[in-house]
Design a protein that fits this description.
Layout (H helix, E strand, L loop, with lengths): L1 H20 L8 E3 L2 E2 L26 H5 L2 H17 L3 H7 L10
Antiparallel strand pairs: 1-2
Helix pairs in contact: 1-3
Length: about 110
């Protein structure tokens, strides 16, 4: 079963890693003083705590300036996590590896 599914699973992980993992998430930031790319009076919800987000990039900040040398590794970990999460999603498999028999993945 491993050999039968290996290529399709790998294809889905890589596709989701690149297409969604590196493209997901909106960098919440203050573009210029008192101008945001989101509504700070009604900020989005933190998916882990379900509370409104309470931090964002300030004017002039970006992932590299905030996280330094770690920014590239953090970005890769995020993308890989998304890829691994979605490989278990039947819809992702059906879209990105349509020749995979869903019953083989159980």
């Amino acid at each position: 079963m491993f050999k039968a599914l290996r290529d399709n699973v790998w294809r889905v992980i890589v596709a989701v890693h690149e297409l969604i993992g590196h493209g997901c998430g909106k960098l919440l930031k203050e573009i210029e003083k008192d101008k945001f790319n989101f509504d700070p009076q009604s900020p989005p919800q933190n998916p882990l705590t379900h509370a409104p987000v309470d931090s964002w990039y300030r004017v002039g900040q970006n992932p590299k300036s905030v996280f330094g040398k770690l920014h590239a590794g953090l970005n890769e970990c995020l993308a890989e996590s998304i890829g691994l999460l979605f490989v278990a999603d039947p819809m992702a498999m059906s879209l990105l590896a349509p020749d995979t028999d869903p019953d083989e993945c159980r």
